[in-house]
Amino acid sequence: MWRGLLLKGTTCLLQVGAHKFLHPRHFSSQCFKLNRTSEAPWNQRLGRASFILSHKVIRSYKKDTKSTVEIPSSPITVTDIKQYLRSKEIPFHDGYSCLHIPSIFIDSSTRKDSSSLFVDKTTGQFLCKDTLVEGSWEDLQDCLEVMQKEEQNFLNPHVLLGYPESVEEQEERERELREVQEIWSSSVPFTDLPEDDSLEVRGINPHAISNATLKKFGVKLFKPTKSLVFPWFGGPDSSLKGIKLLSARRTDSGEVAYNEVTVPRCSSYYNLFGLPLVNCLDSEVVLTGRELDTLAVSQATGLPSVALPRGASCLPPVLLPYLEQFKRVTLWLGGDIRSWEASKIFARKLGLRRCALVRPGEFQPCPLEALSRGRNLSHIVKASIPAAHKSIVSFKQLRDDVYGELVNMDQVAGVKWTRFPELNRLLKGHRKGELTVFTGPTGSGKTTFISELALDLCMQGVNTLWGSFEINNVRLAKIMLTQFAMQRLEEKLEQYDFWADRFEELPLYFMAFHGQQNIKTVLDTMQHAVYLYDINHVVIDNLQFMMGHENLSVDRFAVQDHIIGVFRKFATNSCCHVTLIIHPRKEDDDRELQTASIFGSAKASQEADNVLILQEKKLVTCPGRRSLQVTKNRFDGDVGVFPLDFIKPSLTFSTPLKSKHKLRKVPSKAESEEGVQGDVPKKDEGKKQKVEKTAKAAKSPQAVKSPAKGNETTRE
């Protein structure tokens, strides 16, 4: 009913790290004290960029508590919502991403705003900005029915009851709030700092940001860790609800690396930094990915600016109502390709017709860097391009995009794997909007390999959704946790809490499905997850388990082609990478699999951008029996194969240190013809050289070693 729960119905999504009232995390009262004994642990946590405030965590379980995110059995549409509101004679305004209606939780005579209740057009979730009451579409319907039956003008906000908090949960919430208050009260405004201390923290806050701007946004300095403190004010009384601490360090290359810690933790931190300074009459806002960028935009342009709580990784739908008042939203999330791609995805949520995007480039870096270089930020904002475009474009409109890809080839190639560098040399990276087909013999370790491949990306911030239809989520999570810890935790149970807490922080979600499922249900869940959690990577294991409930045709190949087409369309339209595991046809044990070995028709390999095959020599028991082969690469055509060694204790795959992967490019037709013509004389020359060498060897004596004595003897 509250944040973290969605509509009642079929359980479809399960998150690794659910919200705090689902998986209570209790911080020790000694985790943070304002004395010198606590400074070292705090510095260490900031140093490793941890998002967990305390290093002492007590695990607590509650069996009767929901731990799933749900979608309705019959998804709601905006047409259904409008029809229902009209039937209840409730006036509404059609906004960009929400419908605006008068709040039913406030007396009409005391309302400050005529339409302060917002209903999400996609999910039906509602939020009252005046009372902060929120819930599902079914909850809102129940409230309206009660009002009509009881003939009331408004309802008490406490009519919606969530799950009762346990004593431990209440203590945790109070402890977090107490920590927030202690840190905030101990922080010092920049205007009160001595000149020496102010210069010392300029590594975090460059000279470009003035003390007046820091004071305007309420930014302070926490001296024990030399961190900037960004406050989160919210609620009807604008009380302090949380903080973010930002520290910085210089890398060996001279760049500044930022580390941040939020209280409460990241999954419960919904602060649109800068929102309290926005006037209700403002119609334009600049949306940034960092608090420092918001400070730079506000200081240089004077425009309202807010920062997303999780940067370019996610735009939670619960924040959309707070952005409804703006007729123009300029997204300037950063200066790299990843921020540019996130801007285009977020623009769909916000409404394409009001969004403008700042294209990253040499002369348009992130706002803070642009301010430091002396760029004109007002000119950059005005030069932003509209997010909406026509169906037909000319090269003039594509010219800047093409140049951007040429300049940032490494970023365009996608996210690099850290555990599989050989795969980077072939595929170049993991890119959004692509479809990867993966196959391998039965029992070769397809699920184990793909789980590590996806885990590698997830550890780098790629929001991942797992659909495991062959093995249950508990077993899959156990495999991934073992791969994450790189060791068998059943032999070191005392370390389980440490690794489990770190694993919880990953942006990893699971579909609560097992066995055969209808493709429409699976697709609805995927679309729901992309909207709610900005999923970038979906793994489906495997295709054959979805082919039981389809009535399109008696031909199973036609059913499979239809499903593959659906996934292809989803990957393109949602700008999300889909990895699809397909079992191969039955082949002889002594034969290697090929692209044609994929079960079904040729549509799977035709629609796929990448085709990966896990090869296994079943008749061989020595190391090197497995290898990964890339047989299709639509990005640049590089294909090849490299060996893999399976490390059983950690359930991970690695490449032998002395191995050399075979890398080859698909030859063009002209190259193929030249090769055929040039092979004939080379073969003849090779035969002649071989004959000559044989004749010389027959005439000259050979020196060989005696295995018994080790000395050389001459054979005539």
UniProtKB/TrEMBL annotation:
<comment type="function">
    <text>Mitochondrial helicase involved in mtDNA replication and repair. Might have a role in mtDNA repair. Has DNA strand separation activity needed to form a processive replication fork for leading strand synthesis which is catalyzed by the formation of a replisome complex with POLG and mtSDB. Preferentially unwinds DNA substrates with pre-existing 5'-and 3'- single-stranded tails but is also active on a 5'- flap substrate. Can dissociate the invading strand of immobile or mobile D-loop DNA structures irrespective of the single strand polarity of the third strand.</text>
</comment>
<dbReference type="GO" id="GO:0042645">
    <property type="term" value="C:mitochondrial nucleoid"/>
</dbReference>
<keyword id="KW-1135">Mitochondrion nucleoid</keyword>
<dbReference type="GO" id="GO:0008289">
    <property type="term" value="F:lipid binding"/>
</dbReference>
<dbReference type="GO" id="GO:0043139">
    <property type="term" value="F:5'-3' DNA helicase activity"/>
</dbReference>
<dbReference type="GO" id="GO:0005743">
    <property type="term" value="C:mitochondrial inner membrane"/>
</dbReference>
<keyword id="KW-0496">Mitochondrion</keyword>
<feature type="domain" description="SF4 helicase">
    <location>
        <begin position="409"/>
        <end position="660"/>
    </location>
</feature>
<dbReference type="GO" id="GO:0003697">
    <property type="term" value="F:single-stranded DNA binding"/>
</dbReference>
<dbReference type="Pfam" id="PF13481">
    <property type="entry name" value="AAA_25"/>
</dbReference>
<feature type="region of interest" description="Disordered">
    <location>
        <begin position="658"/>
        <end position="716"/>
    </location>
</feature>
<keyword id="KW-0809">Transit peptide</keyword>
<dbReference type="InterPro" id="IPR034154">
    <property type="entry name" value="TOPRIM_DnaG/twinkle"/>
</dbReference>
<keyword id="KW-0446">Lipid-binding</keyword>
<protein>
    <recommendedName>
        <fullName>Twinkle mtDNA helicase</fullName>
        <ecNumber>5.6.2.3</ecNumber>
    </recommendedName>
</protein>
<dbReference type="GO" id="GO:0016787">
    <property type="term" value="F:hydrolase activity"/>
</dbReference>
<dbReference type="GO" id="GO:0006264">
    <property type="term" value="P:mitochondrial DNA replication"/>
</dbReference>
<feature type="compositionally biased region" description="Basic residues">
    <location>
        <begin position="658"/>
        <end position="667"/>
    </location>
</feature>
<keyword id="KW-0547">Nucleotide-binding</keyword>
<keyword id="KW-0067">ATP-binding</keyword>
<dbReference type="InterPro" id="IPR027032">
    <property type="entry name" value="Twinkle-like"/>
</dbReference>
<dbReference type="GO" id="GO:0005524">
    <property type="term" value="F:ATP binding"/>
</dbReference>
<keyword id="KW-0378">Hydrolase</keyword>
<dbReference type="InterPro" id="IPR007694">
    <property type="entry name" value="DNA_helicase_DnaB-like_C"/>
</dbReference>
<keyword id="KW-0413">Isomerase</keyword>
<keyword id="KW-0472">Membrane</keyword>
<feature type="compositionally biased region" description="Basic and acidic residues">
    <location>
        <begin position="680"/>
        <end position="695"/>
    </location>
</feature>
<keyword id="KW-0347">Helicase</keyword>
<keyword id="KW-0235">DNA replication</keyword>
<dbReference type="InterPro" id="IPR027417">
    <property type="entry name" value="P-loop_NTPase"/>
</dbReference>
<keyword id="KW-0999">Mitochondrion inner membrane</keyword>
